[in-house]
Amino acid sequence: MSIAENVARIKAEIARAAIAAGRDPKDIQLCAATKMNDTAAVREAIAAGIDCCGENRVQELTQKQSENAYEGVPIHFIGHLQTNKVKQVVGKVGIIQSIDSLRLLDAVNKEAARQGICQDVLLEINIAGEESKSGFAVEDIHPLLEKIGDFPAIRVRGLMAIPPICQISTENHKFFQKIYNLSVDITAKKYDNVCVDILSMGMSGDYADAIACGSTMIRVGSAIFGPRHY
Ligand SMILES: *Cc1c(COP(=O)(O)O)cnc(C)c1O
């Protein structure tokens, strides 16, 4: 299957899952997770109609940006970002989806302020409290947002999560629903500089479930580009 065929199939599946959930398919963005795929592959996916690209590693981001790989769509950072690399990412991507600690939030805020910009971010939630994954605990989010005014160069646009892989497909619904519920609570509180219009959840194996639970952005890699060769 070509990249274009894969994107077409995924878009049809997005529409099916959205309509089944009583949602408008237009409310779900397809973010291509482009890690380990080269500029030619990224361009094919963009031509096929993906909505944005998500890159995991700073080095790949910088390399592909120098080749104009992402022309035509926004580029987001979706991988773990080390604080010593924020300079290479802040102001260079539309959204940093993977803000996973207060320390990183602080570093991004400082760099954005230095550049005189406001950086859009998502807060990454470690929804199942897994040791192997980074991200904020659900209970950390409201206390953090109460202090978000301390980070004036940051605008929080939503939440991102990577729930555990579940054997039974509907088992993951409880994780996706927890994130959705958190986003509803956040919206109700009307924090300054916080506008939770993006719920980034769902990947190649579980995006239909994520859409059923309210996802507005799915991050899909292997289902578009084929398996990655590490
Ligand atoms: C790689 C990656 C994805 C996509 O994973 P697939 O299973 O290949 O769809 C999504 N989100 C993040 C953060 C990733 O690193």
The strand count comes to 8
In the sheet with the most strands, the strands line up as 7-6-5-4-3-2-1-8
Unreliable residue stretches? none
Bound molecules: pyridoxal-5'-phosphate
Shape: globular
Sheet with most strands: 8 strands, parallel
Task: Explain this structure.
The chain has an eight-stranded parallel sheet. It starts with a helix and ends in a 5-residue tail after the last helix. It has a single domain, classed as TIM Barrel (Alpha-Beta Barrel). The protein is built from eight helices and eight strands. Helix 2 (39-47) links the parallel strand 1 and strand 2. 37% of the residues lie in helices and 19% in strands. With 230 residues, the protein is of the alpha/beta class. The mean pLDDT is 96. The longest helix is centred in the N-terminal third of the chain and has 18 residues, at 3-20. It has helices at 3-20, 39-47, 58-66, 102-115, 138-146, 173-189, 207-212, 222-225, and strands spanning 29-33, 52-55, 75-77, 95-99, 119-125, 154-161, 194-200, 217-220. Bound molecules: pyridoxal-5'-phosphate. Pyridoxal-5'-phosphate binds at residues 33, 35, 56, 78-79, 162, 203-205, 219-223. Pyridoxal-5'-phosphate is lined by residues 33, 35, 56, 78-79, 162, 203-205, 219-223.
SSE blueprint:
Blueprint: H1 3-20, E1 29-33, H2 39-47, E2 52-55, H3 58-66, E3 75-77, E4 95-99, H4 102-115, E5 119-125, H5 138-146, E6 154-161, H6 173-189, E7 194-200, H7 207-212, E8 217-220, H8 222-225
Parallel strand pairs: 1-2, 1-8, 2-3, 3-4, 4-5, 5-6, 6-7
